[in-house]
TrEMBL record:
It comes from Cardinalis cardinalis (Northern cardinal). Transmembrane segments: none annotated. This is DYH9 protein. GO terms for molecular function: dynein intermediate chain binding; dynein light intermediate chain binding; minus-end-directed microtubule motor activity. It comes from the Eukaryota. One of its GO terms (cellular component) is dynein complex. Pfam families: AAA_lid_11, Dynein_C, Dynein_heavy. Residues 273-365 form the Dynein heavy chain C-terminal domain. Residues 131-267 form the Dynein heavy chain AAA lid domain. One of its GO terms (biological process) is microtubule-based movement. Residues 10-99 form the Dynein heavy chain region D6 P-loop domain. PANTHER family: DYNEIN AXONEMAL HEAVY CHAIN 17-RELATED, DYNEIN HEAVY CHAIN 1, AXONEMAL-LIKE PROTEIN.
Length: 365
């Protein structure tokens, strides 16, 4: 396909990362894709809030007469607060919405860390026992440092963007070292992982010390002797296959608690308080904005709608009797024809109003 100055993965896919004046490129991609039946991926639309109203109108135009295979995918990060919501309602209402949330809890994080590998990964090293044991310990280490962020300053003094890339690179380093040497270089591994791979993100000295301490507990000679516990009640598993490790996590991992991170149970108080406040704040955001004080917001809103509904039904006139009007008509003058047409339209309008009001009343009940 013809390139238009954006990432062009293959002939039927246009991938545009928005920001830094990429709106024109995105519009070009939409025009081409709509004609040819291609797919368009517009990433990070939250970065171009002022352009989104134009995008809404453009998508509305392209919804008519475009190729039947034409599709548009939009991605955005969540807004930090309701005041920052910038995506137009028209786009949201006409879209199939999918949210992708990071796993929560050590159980989900450990499974996700292990998902980056496969049975082939476990079998690729000549020192199989050592490789599998250290790989599982690194997965647990990654799950702990990633999920520890939820405890706020009690977890890390600063939040760090640890990613699965840090884990996979660490496992590659582990493989290279074990292939090159018959002895396990524990000190070298701990230094590379704690000071470079993960430590490269860390800017606080105490956080760096904490990362180093985790690795000193998780990666040491005792791990090959079956004497190492990654957490209270969770021993490092022996030599298993890939599915066996997943099953071991489900069977042996204790329930979620700060003990799994090496923290005191009181560390969870702040996290749970923050989560409760966020939940209640979200519930309050869903309440009607024009409710009066002193009464339940939902009830007040419904009562007000019910009152307006009854008033409108009382004022709604009866439909015109078209047969009677036609019988009274002596001559079909232009004025009379227009009057009849308006009566028909008025009948259609009042019938729809009566139907929808009755439906609304059923909904309220």
């Amino acid at each position: 396909g013809r390139k238009l100055g954006y990432t062009f993965n293959h002939g039927n896919l246009h991938n545009v990362s928005l920001g830094q004046g990429q709106e024109v490129v995105a519009e070009q991609a939409l025009d081409v894709a709509a004609k040819e039946g291609h797919w368009v991926i517009l990433q990070n639309i939250h970065l171009v809030a002022k352009w989104l109203s134009s995008l809404e109108k453009r998508l509305e135009q392209l919804s008519q007469g475009s190729h039947r295979d034409f599709r548009v995918f939009l991605s955005a990060e969540p807004a930090p607060c309701p005041e920052s919501h910038s995506i137009p309602q028209g786009i949201l209402q006409n879209s199939i919405k999918i949210t992708s949330e990071a796993p929560t809890g050590i159980h989900a994080n450990l499974h996700k860390a292990l998902d980056n590998f496969s049975q082939d990964t476990l079998e690729m090293c000549s020192q199989e026992k050592e490789f599998r044991s250290i790989l599982f310990a690194l997965c647990y280490f990654h799950a702990v440092v990633a999920e520890r962020r939820k405890f706020g300053p009690q977890g890390w003094n600063r939040p760090y963007p640890f990613s699965t890339g840090d884990l996979t690179i660490s496992v590659n380093v582990l493989y290279n070292y074990l292939q090159a040497s018959s002895k396990v270089p524990y000190d070298d591994l701990r230094y590379l992982v704690g000071e470079i791979m993960y430590g490269g993100h860390i800017t606080d000295d105490w956080d760096r010390r904490l990362c180093r301490t985790y690795l000193e507990e998780f990666i040491k000679p005792e791990m090959l002797e079956g004497e190492l516990c990654l957490a209270p009640g969770f021993p490092l598993p022996g030599n298993m296959d890939y599915n066996g490790y997943h099953q071991y996590i489900d069977d042996a991992l204790p329930p979620e608690s700060p003990y799994l991170y090496g923290l005191h149970p009181n560390a969870e108080i702040g996290f749970l308080t923050q989560r409760s406040e966020r939940l209640l704040r979200t519930v309050l955001e869903l309440q009607p904005r024009d409710s009066s004080t002193g009464q339940g917001a939902g009830g007040t809103q419904e009562e007000m709608v019910q009152t307006l509904l009854e008033e409108m039904l009382e004022k709604l006139p009866d439909e015109f009797n078209m047969a009677e009007l036609l019988a009274r008509l002596e001559e079909r003058t232009p004025y009379a024809v227009v009057a009849l047409q308006e009566c028909e339209r008025m009948n259609a309008l009042t019938a729809e109003m009566r139907r929808s009001l009755a439906e609304l009343e059923l909904g309220l009940k």
